[in-house]
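Re: [ENG-882] Designed sequences occasionally contain unexpected residues at chain ends

Forwarding the minimal case from QA. Structure tokens:
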């Protein structure tokens, strides 16, 4: 089979994020399972896997790994540390030639003889089958990471995502192709696909908005609202990736959905680790429409407002948890902002014995200093 695609710059950053997060996700969960004397078992489900390979550049002389093989390498690395671990991989693609090619590549890579399967079919159909087979596959209580990365916006009905999120330890990482979705929203022939995608027809209101930026923000916000209300996602974070060399034309949003706040924290940390790049990677705050991942978050105002509501002191860990859920912050800039507020005598920090004065962490308590 001839590999169809040269890897694009925005796809590289998507893969970096996936690699960074999956390795952290798997390491933490394997360690927790071992500590709790549970079987060390994880599952990765790739809903639009493709052939698993891209051309590195336009010369088409060297290949690089796509998402299934990136995760396969991570699985091998972690199993080599403890061969009692089980890391299942399930890959779906609509094209037989992609599936056949990927099967061969995974077979060569699968040196620990794990359950790595590739099936031809529609994502929605295969995801439904997968849900029905959880008990049969003996993975009904294991953590499962679903990578939903379509080439466009078809065949990712929100009702299927709801079924996936009913799995207690499930996480979703969705590629929301905003540029294609905006074009489809003005084409009545695409309405049936968008009805499935959003679970409603409010996307049609986008025609009333004049600027591309307004349309992008409206559709993204509406989709996340539907993920919360209809798919029952407890915690979400979203990030946009701009198309290199094309200014503000956003190619897609990456949206993470989870049932546990720690998963939200780890994904935001993974995004932060790869955010220093040319792609205009940005975090979307729950409270505001758009904030830069590195800059633009008014933590001083956010934290002071929250502390006014709290009245009593709060531990750093409690405050950090609130910031992860309600702002675009990560540990590094949350801590620096709290330290700045202490220097300005806006908050007081009561540190535990032996905690350093030039930082804040753990059970240190923070309180607003009344004017």
């Amino acid at each position: 089979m001839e590999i169809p695609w040269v890897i694009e710059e925005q796809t590289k950053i998507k893969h970096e994020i996936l690699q960074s997060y999956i390795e952290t996700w798997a390491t933490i969960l394997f360690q927790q399972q071992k500590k709790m004397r549970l079987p060390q078992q994880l599952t990765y489900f790739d809903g639009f896997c493709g052939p698993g390979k891209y051309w590195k550049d336009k010369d088409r002389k060297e290949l690089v790994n796509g998402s299934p093989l990136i995760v396969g390498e991570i699985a091998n690395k972690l199993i080599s540390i403890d061969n009692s671990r089980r890391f299942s991989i399930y890959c779906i693609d609509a094209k037989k030639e992609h599936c056949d090619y990927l099967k061969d590549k995974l077979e060569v890579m699968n040196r620990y003889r794990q359950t790595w399967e590739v099936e031809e079919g529609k994502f929605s159909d295969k995801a439904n089958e997968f849900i029905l087979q959880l008990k049969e596959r003996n993975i009904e209580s294991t953590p499962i990471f679903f990578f939903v990365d379509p080439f466009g916006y078809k065949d990712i009905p929100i009702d299927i995502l709801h079924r996936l999120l009913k799995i207690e330890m499930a996480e979703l990482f969705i590629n929301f192709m905003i540029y294609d979705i905006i074009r489809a929203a003005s084409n009545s022939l695409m309405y049936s696909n968008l009805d499935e995608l959003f679970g409603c027809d409010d996307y049609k209101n986008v025609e009333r908005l004049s600027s591309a930026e307004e349309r992008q923000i409206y559709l993204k916000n509406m989709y996340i609202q539907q993920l919360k209300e209809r798919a029952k996602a407890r915690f979400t974070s979203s990030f946009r990736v701009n198309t290199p060399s094309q200014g503000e034309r956003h190619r897609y949003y990456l949206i993470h959905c989870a049932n546990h706040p720690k998963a939200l924290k780890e994904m935001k940390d993974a995004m932060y680790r790869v955010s220093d790049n040319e792609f205009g990677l940005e975090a979307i705050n729950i409270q505001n429409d758009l904030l830069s991942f590195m800059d633009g978050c008014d933590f001083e105002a956010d934290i002071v407002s929250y502390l006014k509501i709290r009245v009593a002191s709060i531990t750093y860990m409690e405050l950090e948890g609130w910031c992860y859920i309600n702002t675009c912050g990560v540990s590094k800039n949350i801590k620096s902002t709290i330290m700045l507020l202490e220097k300005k005598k806006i908050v007081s920090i009561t540190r535990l014995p032996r905690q350093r004065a030039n930082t804040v962490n753990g059970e240190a308590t923070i309180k607003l200093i009344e004017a």
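QA comment: On inspection the terminal residues look reasonable. The domain at 9-292 is CATH 3.40.50 (Rossmann fold). Proposing we downgrade this to a documentation issue.
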